[in-house]
Known about the structure:
Number of strands: 2
Shape: globular
Mean pLDDT: 83
Low-confidence stretches: none
Number of helices: 1
Largest sheet: 2 strands, antiparallel
Order of helices and strands: EEH
Structural class: alpha+beta
Amino acid sequence: RSWGGVGSGVPDGKPMIGPTVVEGFHVCYAPLGFTMGPICGRIFAENFLHGDSIVPVEPFSPNRFLGSLQ
């Protein structure tokens, strides 16, 4: 069995989890979806529903790239 396709990514290879600068828009992106998807989904759901999660989401903020855009 094999899989082929286009994979997207982010510069640092880490997931993106949490709110963005666009009000009400949250992101849950796992660069290795098949392996990281379940835990990223759990962290996202806990953070979204309760404002807290088992893992701090600050290192995975989608807004961490805003400084490099200027």
